[in-house]
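Retry 2 of 3 after timeout on previous attempt. Resubmitting structure tokens to design endpoint.
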């Protein structure tokens, strides 16, 4: 069993916490923190992932976890040099069916009859347009967390700016190119075009006020171009969002909150296919949920809503659609929430004449996009995964976070076959158990509570070598939260008498989804070879 021998002073600020704070002093932030690795008195790396070891990657969501998992497990991996590690690896949920891992909480089954699938079966044609930053959301998540492209479905992916470590430097991202693709699509043979502007969400996670304002204004400018094109072509335009972000950009104490919010999102129906003025005669319910969008779109296209979709059409009862629309554009302003209060509201501060005009002149609703409305615990914020999942599903889907939390509460987590298999491998082989994942109170990619449950499980089974590799990143967290969470992990490990933090690295490097293999390689080399800033420890691998 690995234990830290620490003085009272070091318990207040351990070597790792001190190293993180020193990195802050050098201008680094949690998200892109350069790797910190534990070393012994002689400077030799401690707790590295070695051949035959056991790894539990306890993150959720999964789309950002695929590349690192590939690098650790795929024998045919070729994007950068890797070792043949022969790991016994478990992932908390299924990141991708092709990965050579055991899955602790496999999918409960596909979400059938999503918006795209229903339209496909009805012979309709669907085109999805997004930057590469959001491609997986319009594809995998909107299709019910399925790796499938349905008949009649096409995707056009616009590359996000390449070689950019900080999108605050390019808040415009590739929005103009997305608009060009949208306008071009209005001339093509599609029944439904679904498009996403990523700027507000992506840049909103960065602590740069001017960049955030620019991102909001860029999206509004592109929205204006799209509105004009839809008017010219007599196309029905639906504008919504998946969750809020920058409309509540401050905590009550005035520090910046770069995370998502609990606020509602807009739904605007600008039906330019109707005769001039009659589009304003349509009436929408004043409130709804994201799950109501899919049934509304189906109604507008004259397609029956399947029984599985429990969401309700947002058109008021009696508002019968006389004829189906020949084409609809569903535009998702990613991260665009609505909030009455002006303080800390970056959307209210920005110049948004096009959105304001739409909201003032066309039927609109407020949609719940957080908490139970998107399958998450009450009071929690929304996110892009749950947002797009529910936009497509048209029903509430219980997310993995809730399912795993219940398993912990009920005790079945500690009887999970995949976890027990991993612990048995570690014991029988005399190998180390590595716990890898996000350290945060709540992130859409995971929670520190799941790490703590795994530590308790390892203690129950007397696993002798447990090493913790912390991924940190400030999204919805206060400044310098990474140091706080690493301290909490070390305190829990100390109280349980098991586990040692041996790696800390920003999630920017570890959780990539666009084949930025140089980032993944940095993480891999830290985990396997101990490359990074050394953090001297008193204890050693036993």
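Retry 2 succeeded. Sequence:
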């Amino acid at each position: 069993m690995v234990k830290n021998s620490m003085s009272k002073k070091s318990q207040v600020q351990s070597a790792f916490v001190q190293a993180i704070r020193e990195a802050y002093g050098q201008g680094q932030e949690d998200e892109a923190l350069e790797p910190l690795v534990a070393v012994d008195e002689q400077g030799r790396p401690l707790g590295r992932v070695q051949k035959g070891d056991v790894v539990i990657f306890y993150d959720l969501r999964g789309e950002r976890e695929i590349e690192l998992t590939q690098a650790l497990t795929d024998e045919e991996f070729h994007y950068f040099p890797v070792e043949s590690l022969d790991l016994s690896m478990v992932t908390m949920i299924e990141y991708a069916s092709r990965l050579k891992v055991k899955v602790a909480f496999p999918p409960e089954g596909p979400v059938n009859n999503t918006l795209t699938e229903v339209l496909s079966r009805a012979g309709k044609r669907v085109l999805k347009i997004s930057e590469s930053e959001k491609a997986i959301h319009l594809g995998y998540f909107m299709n019910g967390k399925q790796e499938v492209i349905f008949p009649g479905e096409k995707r056009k992916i616009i590359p996000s700016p390449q070689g950019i470590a900080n999108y605050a430097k390019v808040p415009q991202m590739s929005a103009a190119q997305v608009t060009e693709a949208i306008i071009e699509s209005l001339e093509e043979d599609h029944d439904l075009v679904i498009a996403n502007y990523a700027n507000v969400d992506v840049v909103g996670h960065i602590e740069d006020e001017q960049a955030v304002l620019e991102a909001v204004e860029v999206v509004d400018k592109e929205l204006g171009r799209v509105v004009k094109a839809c008017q010219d072509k007599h196309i029905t335009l639906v504008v919504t969002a998946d969750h809020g972000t920058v409309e509540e950009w401050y905590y009550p104490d005035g520090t910046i909150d770069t995370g998502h919010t609990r606020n509602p999102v807009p739904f605007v129906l600008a039906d330019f296919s109707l005769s001039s003025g009659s589009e304003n005669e349509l009436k929408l319910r004043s409130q709804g949920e994201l799950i109501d969008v899919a049934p509304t779109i189906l109604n507008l296209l004259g397609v029956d809503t399947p029984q599985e979709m429990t969401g309700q059409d947002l058109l008021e009862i009696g508002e019968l659609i006389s004829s189906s629309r020949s084409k609809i554009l569903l535009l998702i302003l990613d991260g665009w929430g609505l909030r009455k209060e002006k303080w800390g509201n970056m959307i209210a501060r920005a110049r948004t004449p096009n959105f304001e005009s739409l909201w003032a002149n066309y039927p609109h609703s407020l949609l719940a996009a957080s908490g139970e409305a998107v399958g998450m615990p009450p009071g929690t914020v929304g996110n892009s995964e749950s947002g797009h999942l529910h936009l497509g599903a048209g029903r509430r889907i219980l997310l993995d976070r809730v399912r795993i939390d219940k398993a912990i509460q009920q005790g079945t987590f500690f009887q999970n076959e995949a976890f027990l298999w991993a612990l048995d491998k570690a014991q029988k082989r005399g190998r180390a158990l590595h716990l890898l994942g996000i350290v945060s109170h709540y992130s859409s990619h995971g929670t520190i509570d799941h790490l703590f449950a795994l530590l308790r499980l390892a203690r129950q089974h007397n696993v002798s070598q447990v090493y913790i590799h912390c991924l940190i990143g400030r999204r919805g967290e206060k400044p310098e939260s990474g140091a706080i969470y690493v301290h909490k992990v070390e305190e829990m490990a100390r109280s349980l008498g098991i586990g040692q933090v041996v790696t800390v690295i920003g999630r920017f490097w570890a959780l990539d989804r666009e084949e930025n293999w140089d980032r993944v390689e940095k993480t891999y080399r830290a985990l396997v070879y101990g490359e990074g800033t050394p953090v001297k420890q008193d204890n050693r691998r036993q």
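Attempt log closed. The chain has two domains: 8-106+402-536, 115-396.
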